[in-house]
Amino acid sequence: MAVSLGLEDVFIKYTGLTFIDGNAGVLRYRGYDINDLVQNTGFEEVCYLMTNGELPNSQQLAEFKKSVKEHYKLPDHVMELISDLPREADTLTMMETAFASLSSGDYQWNKENDRKQVPKILGENLGIISNIYRHKMGMGLQNPEPKYDYAEAFLRNCFGNADEKKISAMNAALVIYVDHEVPASTTAALVASSTLSDMYSCITAATAALKGPLHGGAAEAAYKQLLDIGNVDNVENWFKTNILDGKRRLMGFGHRVYRTYDPRMKIFKKLATTLEQTDEQKKLFEIAVKLEELGVKEFGGKGIYPNTDYYSGIVFNEIGFPIYMFTTLFGFSRVLGWLSHITEYVEEEERLIRPRAVYTGPDKRDFVKMQDRK
User: Fold this and answer.
1) Within 13 A of 33's CA, how many CA atoms are on the CB side?
2) Are 296 and 258 in contact (CB under 8 A)?
3) Distance CA 326, CA 307 (A)
4) What is the pTM of this model?
5) Helix (H) and strand (E) counts for the chain?
6) Which DSSP symbol is given to 41?
7) Dihedral pair phi/psi, residue 179, rounded to 5°
8) Catalytic residue positions?
9) Residues of the chain with pLDDT > 70: what percent?
10) Contact 153, 126 (CB under 8 A)
């Protein structure tokens, strides 16, 4: 009996959300190319698109934004919970804990209200992630200002202010990371949703999966790799010593689906050049470009190319975030993708996900009493 370890190339649902052509390097949300969406929309527009199936008109977008902003303010018990967590705690653990606490008043799935909950959860998501950052930095917690749109409200609550280039880059990053079919975290959310668990618990399950280093953490690892190299003059020797001879994995390269350049990576690379760079950030970008050149030359023939995480850490750092926030920023955006998939699955499939396992243990054995065991 065939078993697909890791569920590789196993199709577990029908979806109208995200299309990927891994050979051509194409990514579309609801039929729209990722490049068009990044260049021409804001995060809230894409949220509306993923939730409702069509891009909003101006009135629909205004109403959607208003409903999201109404929920920037977190319940007192969630703010208290975040402030009580150890500052040294992992940021994804904080995210997981905060969303779990929101499930306390929402015990099961409600099909009549599922889509109506999306703006509410998105607003709470902004409050949670921005206050996790504030808590980690030793700042007092505060609710985001509802007069600002999503990306700007987030950056202002984290840093106190935000220039237009950083707002634009944050907005683009949020759009880029919205969804990518069914990786491990989305699958975890789907399994939870198939039991008709509530949306907050599904997000908690997804966040737990994202916390694992084989799924989340790639942007952090790729960024630390650049720090390890230290200088563009060291790239060739580092590559030969560590990758070619040392057989280390080249972080930020390779993807289960793409056999060419990840289209998201190209956008992040361009974004990195639009933001103001410190001397250190310029140096890291130069290292990344040189390392990309060597990596593609060596591994491109095998279908191994830079993925979305290769340059994203550089962009997040240029916006102002430390390394420990990178994966949480991915989750910050992907909450919308998780919500979209679980809503789609429960509304259209509503079937409990219950796979099987091939037994490889011993055949039937006679029970041996304690006194007779060796």
Assistant:
1) 8
2) no
3) 15
4) 0.95
5) 16, 3
6) -
7) -160, 155
8) 255, 309
9) 98
10) yes
Q: What angle do CA 128, 132, 316 make, to 5 degrees?
A: 100
Question: Which CA distances in Å does 205 have to 191, 285, 295, 337?
Answer: 9, 35, 35, 14
Structure tokens, 184: 């491990």
Phi, psi of 32 (to 5 degrees): -95, 130
Burial label, 362 (beta-carbon count in 10 A; 0-12, 13-18, 19+): exposed
CB crowding 260-299: b at 16 or more within 10 Å, else e: bbbbbbbbbbebbeebebeeebebbbebbebbbebbeeeb
Burial of 175 (0-12, 13-18, 19+ CB in 10 A): buried
The three-class DSSP label of residue 356 is coil
pLDDT digits (tens, 9 = 90+) for 81-111: 999 999 999 999 999 999 999 987 665 666 6
Lowest mean pLDDT among 112-126, 197-211, 251-265: 112-126
- Strand 32-33, strand 18-21: pairing: unpaired
Structure tokens given for 73: 């303010």
Structure tokens at 142: 């505060």
- Whole-Å CA distances, 278 to 146, 156, 177: 31, 21, 25
The one-letter amino acid at 61: L
Give start-end residues of each CATH 1.10.230.10 domain in the chain. Answer: 218-319
Tell me the backbone φ, ψ of residue 39, rounded to 5 degrees: -75, -30
Q: In what order do the strands lie in the sheet with 18-21?
A: 18-21, 26-29, 32-33
3-class SS of residue 306: strand
Nearest to 17 by CA among 7, 31, 2: 31
Residue 326's CB: how many other CB atoms inside 10 A? 24
Distance CA 98, CA 125 (A): 9
Round to the nearest angstrom and report the end-to-end CA distance of the chain: 35
- Tell me 32's DSSP state: E
Q: What is the CATH number of domain 218-319?
A: 1.10.230.10
CATH of domain 14-210+331-348: 1.10.580.10
- In the chain, list all ranges with CATH 1.10.580.10: 14-210+331-348
